[in-house]
Design a protein that fits this description.
38% of the residues lie in helices and 14% in strands. It is α/β, with parallel strands linked by helices and 459 residues long. The protein has a single domain (12-456), classed as Glycosidases (TIM Barrel, Alpha-Beta Barrel), CATH 3.20.20.80. The protein starts with 11 loop residues before the first strand and ends with a helix. The structure holds beta-D-fucopyranose.
């Protein structure tokens, strides 16, 4: 094993998961239905008809999972709270049993010296709110702030970091624009109000959390450095258009108090934005969560769909093109790809981090990498050397960014466990720990042992 460079003292090492992807027990203790329960029940939505009904059975096996983290030697754990466990219908008083579960988890983590990083929303909206319009309805933002306050009133004194939303771009684009995730709506650009209401929900939640919590308040976005397919001005313009959507739509309003230029999409006004909204959305945060998996290569749109191979957007890319959006994704050649087909480009993490610093300057709060990792063709007994190589190379790129002056405070591997990978069901395994979904047996992979050995030599 080649030791990693030494990270700064106090750097947090963790693993990440999300409620719907691991918990199961979808009807236990008064939990209401979420949009993912509904989506999974619709034929053809999720690969192999998989659902999160049992997932990793974490709701019952969580002590074993906490012990796995303890054995790994990480000092932090990022998990998410399922809103429908706390408010089964998305409004009204808290369901105490739902909060009890997270309180037990948080206390068990703290006993082992593992800092809880709590995400309030990792895409499992109460179905009752979706029935009223979901994130396309402004009221959902207010409901989200009420829910945030309920969780904070119970756990505000113990949680190290509060992440309002996970990857609102993916939730908006896949859930509301393209329909490949729950709630399965294909509104294309008419999904923009959902973007605004997610941002507003974030801002209102920040205000609700301030004063109620002792920990940091953050937002997690996914970023993908955008490479123009060629130097041609049309490709460059397409890359800029995509960058505005993928990387800026949920960052500029939060850090700069304004929306990026969306004129490439024919968007010249945002009638759903009300006076005072942007000030709320730009409420100061203590940290930015950065999820990174791979870069994107973008070209000007062609006449006909031409998706040809591994690319970040996959089949969704074809639908974007059919919808007449001003870009198309193109394969990135010359790099290995993960089991998902995502290109492995560790240098792009360095580019991303130095780019965030250069673009946002003093407006950029300290960064935590809240997700990074890869799926691989894992079988018990086969060492996941490809995952070790992925993590090793990305951590070296991250270290270079820190050496180059980017303020990065922590790194969370996605994921602790193999889990329910949204529309891909159980077909994509991201865990440091193998899960046999028949027996729920957990088996640490080679990458788990590798990370444990690396952490022993970190401060
Ligand atoms: C991210 C999600 C996370 C997981 C990884 C692979 O976009 O936040 O839940 O699915 O991708």
């Amino acid at each position: 094993m080649r030791p990693l460079p030494v990270f700064p003292p106090g750097f947090r090492w963790g693993t990440a998961t999300a409620s719907y992807q691991i918990e199961g027990s979808v009807r236990a203790d008064g939990r209401g239905a979420s949009i993912w329960d509904t989506f999974c029940a619709e034929p053809g939505r999720v690969k192999n008809g998989d659902t999160g009904e049992t997932a990793c059975d974490h709701y019952r096996r969580w002590p074993e999972d906490v012990a796995l983290m303890d054995g790994l030697g990480v000092g932090a754990y990022r998990f998410s709270v399922a809103w429908p466990r706390v408010q089964p219908d998305g409004r009204g008083p808290a369901n105490a049993k739902g909060l009890d579960f997270y309180e037990r988890l948080v206390d068990a983590l703290l006993e082992r010296g593992i800092a809880p990083f709590l995400t309030l929303y990792h895409w499992d909206l109460p179905q009752a709110l979706e029935d009223l319009g979901g994130w396309t309805d402004r009221d959902t933002a207010h409901r989200f702030a009420d829910y945030a306050a309920l969780v904070a009133d119970r756990l505000g004194d113990r949680v190290t970091a509060w992440i309002t939303l996970n990857e609102p771009f993916v939730h908006m684009s896949e859930g509301y624009s393209l329909g490949s995730h729950a709630p399965g709506r294909a509104l294309l650009l008419d999904a923009l109000p959902a973007a605004h209401h997610l941002l507003l929900g974030h801002g209102l939640a920040v205000r609700a959390l301030r004063g109620r919590v002792t920990g940091d308040i953050m937002l997690t976005n996914n970023y993908s450095p955008v490479l123009p397919a060629t130097g041609d001005p049309a490709d460059r313009a397409a890359a800029d258009a995509f960058d505005a959507l993928q990387n800026r739509l949920f960052t500029d309003p939060v850090l700069l108090g304004r929306y990026p230029d969306l004129t490439a999409y024919g968007v010249t006004g945002l009638p759903f934005v009300r006076d005072g909204d942007l000030a709320l959305i730009a409420s100061p945060i203590d940290g930015l969560g950065v999820n990174y998996y791979s870069p994107t290569r973008i070209a000007a749109p062609a006449q006909a769909p031409s998706h040809q191979g591994p690319s970040v957007l996959g089949e969704v890319g074809d639908r974007i093109q059919e919808a007449g959006l001003p870009f198309q994704d193109t394969p990135i050649e010359g790099h290995p790809v993960t089991a998902f087909g995502w290109p492995v480009v560790p240098d792009a993490l360095h580019t991303l981090l130095t780019g965030l610093r250069d673009d946002y300057g003093a407006a950029l709060p300290p960064i935590t990498i809240t997700e990074n990792g890869c799926s691989s063709h894992d079988e018990p007994g086969r060492p996941d050397d490809d995952r070790v190589a992925y993590l090793d190379a990305h951590l070296r790129a991250l270290h270079r960014a820190i050496t180059d002056g980017v303020d990065v405070r922590g790194y969370f591997v996605w994921s602790l466990l193999d889990n329910f990978e949204w529309a891909e069901g159980y077909s994509q395994r991201f865990g440091l720990v193998h899960v046999d979904f028949e027996t729920q047996e957990r088996t640490p992979k080679a990458s788990y042992h590798w990370l444990r050995a690396q952490l022993e030599s970190q401060p």
